[in-house]
Amino acid sequence: MNWLRTFRVFLAHGGRDFFRHKTLSLLNLTALAVGVAAIVAIQTVNETALRSFRASLDLVAGRPDFTVEGQGFRLPENLIPILRQDPAIRELTPTLTLIASLPSHPGEFIHLIGVDPFSNTELVTYRLQDTLLTPADATAFVSEPNTIAITRPLADRLHLKIGDSLRAVSGGHQANLQIRFLLEPSPDLIGADDHLAIADIATVQSSFGLLGQIDRIDALLLPDADGKITSAQADLLTRLTPHLPANARAGSPERRGQEVGKMLGAFQLNLTALSLIALVVGMFLVTNTVAANVARRRSELGLLRSLGLDRRSVIFLLVGESLLLSLLGSTLGIFLGLQVARTLLHSVSSTITSHYVLLSMTDIAVNPWSLLLAGLAGLLAAGLAAWWPAREASLVPPVDALQPGNSADRASSPHSLALRPALLCFLLTLIFSATALYGRIPRTGFLAALSILLAAAFLAPSLGRFFARLPSLPFPSAILARSAFSRGLHRHGLAAAALSVAVAMAIGVTIMVHSFRATVDQWIGESIKADLFIAPSTNLIAGALEPLDPIAESLALATPGVLAVGTYREVRLFLDGLPAKLAACKLDVLRIHNPLTLLSALPGDPYELCQKGDYALISENFARRRRLQPGSSISLPTPTGLRSIQVAAIFRDYTSESGLLLLDRATYQRLTQDQGLTSLAIHLQPGISAQAVGDSLREQLRPRGEFLIYSQAGLREEALRIFDRSFAVTTLLRTLAIAVAALGVTLSLTALGVERTREIGILRATGASRTQILRTIMFESAYLGATGITLGIVTGFAVALILMQVINRAFFGWTIDWHTPYPSLIYVTLGMILACLLASLPPAWRASRLSPAEALRSE
Amino acid sequence: MLETRDLHKSYQAGEARVDALRGITLKILAGEIVAITGPSGCGKSTLLHLLGALDTPTSGQVYLEGHPLHSLNDDKLTALRRLKIGFVFQFFHLLPTLTVEENVLLPLLLSGRVNPLARARARDLLTSVQLADRSHHRPHQLSGGQLQRAAIARALIHQPSILLADEPTGNLDSASSNAVIELITRLARKEKTTVLLVTHSQSVAATADRQIQLVDGRIQS
Ligand SMILES: Nc1ncnc2c1ncn2[C@@H]1O[C@H](COP(=O)(O)OP(=O)(O)OP(=O)(O)O)[C@@H](O)[C@H]1O
Ligand SMILES: [Mg+2]
Questions:
Q1: Given A600, A784, A796, B138, which is the most exposed site by the fewest CB atoms within 10 A?
Q2: Atom 14 of ligand 1, nearest CA residue
Q3: Which pLDDT tens digit goes with each residue over B179-190?
Q4: Does A644 reach chain B within 8 Å, measured CB to CB?
Q5: What is the ipTM of this complex?
Q6: What are phi and psi of A546, to 5 degrees?
């Protein structure tokens, strides 16, 4: 227990040291905290998205043992008696969900769920009884016609009260609903959105033309003899399968969770990648921090060593101290991270809504495990980071450590050996890229990106040395800075590495996003030829795919000046376990007025094939991800059974992440019995004003509800707005990375400033002015910045290449044309330079303000 | 040449106040070599810092060749240090990144006066401190005595009117110590530089023109 006593002494000393160098200590803590915060923030956002999605499903049907769900299309009601007869089923309840807009409240909608209040009591988590309903009310709920329950927040916002009627529109059907109940969503219910509205399932069916249709059946099973339900689930599935339509998917609800994961997979991947990078930058920062601390305490260690402390204890003491510091930092980081997650929530939630599913995230979901994990990552980083310098410090003979002045000079200097790991990392980049692209292990694409970043990090000290060897500017401060930088590489090497990683990632992401945007923009320009577009307003607000009022098509066709009307229908479904979009168009209009960019096709006219038989056009990413070619066949589950569709051609498309399977409208309707439309594309005769036709349509449609009518330019703007919003998180994290790297610069310079206090004293005594000291440190920061930024820019191009050609190809299968965003690159670079200069100001100021006499006295 | 009047310096260390100097009045003539002695903690380094324009007094006046050091701002003090003052410290404070020659040239480098003439002077000085063959070495490759000799060359490179040395031999064995003192006095007399030398050693003090003894922040006469 001897070392424990020593540790206490050491800690007491460390504590005092901590308060003596307040700025440095605060910076250390901040660095640790920011590193951990970045991880926590991203983890939490991820977690929240997943959880609220699952919760929004559970909201209606609690946690059933078994679920039958229609994918893409609804299910026939007559499944209910079939299921009810089954001996394994104890309880079941159907639901029917839709999004309806509220014409009297522009921009508002309800997420209407039709439930059966008699059968759902045991299943639903969002029990009506918990709100204002009493069992007696349940009868009123079904007996009074058109009864609806809306949430109190929505009622308050729209100034509605019990007894008011509410007009709702969906798919061309209008209903006057009576508000008879208010729902009081409990605050801890994740996924509860104030748009939620509940009505009797029969009301929803009759009001919106959905007679005989349901979305889902949730059931509770009778346990078997062993009290388990697993075998009951399997048996039930076998019995049911012959009775189910092809588009029905039945099974345990766990599977649904997995599918959610898959659906949000790409999005999460994006975030995971960013959090990995945040982790790398954070680790560098932590390493830097801890290494600085250890270096500063060398002489103290020399003393302890000379007093009889053994080597192992030295390591133990230093690592222990770093762990304590990082414990504090990680704790702060967790709180900071949660705060950041909260601010990101909105943008993430709207991104998911516009790309994947309607999702409402009101507050973050905190997973204690991921917090613990992030905290552990911080601790681990600090422990590992302390290990190396601690070991080194333990090897220094006590006399050396005690020798003042030049002890730090003999501290570790980076070796050119770092070239070898850099080369290794570069090789790994190539290998991982190959496995991602050809080995069908997409995830290794991220390892490729990580390896190239690490390669850059390893090169940082060597490049720094190279810069330090170049002749310096002929100013005294530049000359001094150059030699100080070359000697400070043991510290600066790490800061430059962190900087280069941050810059590389910022530049890589900037190039990727810009290229992607430019590609999409160009594609929109080439492929969107119609003059006007009409869609139900809810599709924009709630990201839904509610059908358009069919009257819109006939109105558009009857409007003078209209040359042709293209139709578009889209449903989301799972094909072979992967999410996909099934779409239908009037191909005769499309081929004449808005031909697709075909990349490859079967011989003959692909459009004609599709119009005549069970052929489809598929998007490039759909083809790449499923490895399909013209001629391949796809089995498509439809309400009329499983259909085999052949690929007629592959076309370029950027509208869907999961890929698009496009059928001719007639084929689609024949196979699916779905007459609905999602939007219309109107082509005008030459010389006709889109504005005028748009206004006239708007006028005619007004009584039918709320519609979105876009001009060509408007649609393009809208598409790019959605694109930009999707990358908002990316951009924010990019800024965060730059900020973190700048913090690293400050930290590095401050730590060196503290180490070199005495030298600054000598310089001042020898006649250096305050300005000269200030300039010297700023020049030093310029050397540091030049190293990190140069390396970062070069690596950034490589990262962009990997993002576009490896990760994107392996995961999404899009073609992104390279566009170098010169202005943004210049901004990012200037921003980084500015950040470095700003970062150098506090330490430079501090050093220049030191009193020379005090500085000379410092130990 | 150098004059102080009723010089006081106090440090505030938390609650406690330390009066390091309590009324120092002295006058040093041009070309004089003066030894300052006294027990540890009596304020020798503090006095030297005030005389060397490194610090400002709590009260009292310091005049260096008529310049009132106590009332000048940092820029003016810096300029004076650059032109008129040379320092030698106890722990051979050389900059570890620069070579010996660059260290010697440092004061001129800072004032942007490095030219062939200055380089020649640096070589001369290095020869006279017997380090000509070491001019391109780094400080950590030199011995203690050699370092101190290099520091003396640096202190004299810009022909200061006064050389302040704070226990320049405190860290050396007696042979090197004698050599260093001998060097300082020889060069100072040759260049007609005034020297203020803080020392614990009686034998070193004896070589000076005059001795000032400090006790507890005051001059003991
Ligand atoms: N920054 C400071 N804060 C508080 N007290 C100080 C400070 N610097 C010096 N002192 C005190 O001032 C007094 C004089 O210190 P100084 O360094 O001048 O002594 P010295 O004569 O040079 O001693 P030595 O021979 O040991 O070098 C001492 O009591 C010292 O503790
Ligand atoms: Mg002293």
A1: A600
A2: B43
A3: 888 888 888 888
A4: no
A5: 0.85
A6: -70, 145
Residue B134: DSSP 8-state: G
Chain-chain contact of B49 with A856 (C-beta, under 8 angstroms): yes
The domain spans of chain A are 1-63+257-403, 64-252, 418-529+719-859, 550-704
Strand-pair category, A147-151 with A173-183: parallel
Contact residues, chain A, for B76 at CB < 8 Å: none
Query: What pLDDT is attached to residue B213?
Result: 93
Residue of B nearest to A483 (CA): B97
Whole-angstrom Cα distance, residue B89 to residue B109? 20
Average pLDDT, chain A: 80
Q: Are B155 and B168 in contact (CB under 8 A)?
A: no
**Measured distance CA(A365)–CA(A362) in Å, rounded:** 9
Q: Given an 8 Å threshold on Cβ–Cβ distance, is B82 in contact with A767?
A: yes
Give mean pLDDT, residues A9-22. Answer: 68
Cα B45 to ligand 1 centroid, rounded to whole Å: 7
A462-491 tens-digit pLDDT: 899 899 888 888 888 888 888 888 877 877
Domain B32-58+73-220 has CATH 3.30.70.120: no
Q: CA-to-CA distance for B89 and B166, rounded, in angstroms?
A: 5
Residues with a CB atom less than 6 Å from ligand 1: A 857; B 11, 13, 18, 20, 38, 40-46
Higher pLDDT, A408 or A622: A622
Q: Tell me, letter by letter, the H, E, C secondary structure of A770-793.
A: HHHHHHHHHHHHHHHHHHHHHHHH
Q: What percent of chain A has pLDDT over 70?
A: 80
Four-residue CA torsion sign, A611, A614, A615, A616 = positive
pLDDT in tens, A774-804: 999 889 888 988 999 999 999 999 999 998 8
Question: Quick one: which H or E segment has residue B154?
Answer: helix B144-156
Residue (of A40, A47, A15, A39) closest to A190 by Cα position:
A47
Distance from CA of A753 to the nearest CA of B (A): 14
Q: If DSSP codes are grouped into helix, strand and coil, which group holds residue A478?
A: helix
Say which residue, A542 or B59, is predicted with more confidence: B59
At A633 the three-state DSSP class reads strand
Select from B46, B87, B102 the Cβ nearest to the Cβ of A766: B87
Residue to mutate among A407, A763, A766, A856, with most B CBs inside 10 A, is A766
Contacts of A480 in chain B (CB under 8 A): 95, 109
Query: d(Cα A317, Cα A528) in Å, to the nearest integer?
Result: 67
pLDDT (0 to 100) of residue A565: 92
Neighbours of A756 (CB within 10 A): 22
Per the CB < 8 A criterion, the answer to whether A699 and A571 are in contact is: no
> Ligand 1 centroid vs A771 CA: distance in angstroms?
28
Cβ-count burial A539-561 (b if 16+ within 10 Å, e if not): bebbbbbbbbbeebbebbeebeb
Residue B5 pLDDT grade (very low, low, confident, very high; cuts 50, 70, 90): very high
Chain B closest CA to A743's CA: distance in Å? 26
A529 touching B, CB under 8 A? no
Residue in chain A closest to B50 (alpha carbons) equals: A853
Find the closest chain B residue to A475 by CA distance: B112
Q: What is the tens place of the pLDDT at every residue in A605-656?
A: 999 999 988 999 999 989 988 889 999 999 998 888 889 999 999 998 887 7
Instruction: Give the model's pLDDT for residue B58.
Output: 92
Shortest-distance Cα residue to atom 6 of ligand 1: B11
pLDDT in tens, A422-464: 899 999 999 999 998 888 788 788 889 889 988 998 898 889 9
Which positions in chain B touch A483 (Cβ < 8 Å)? Answer: 95, 97-98, 102
3-class SS of residue B26: strand
The domains of chain B are located at 32-58+73-220
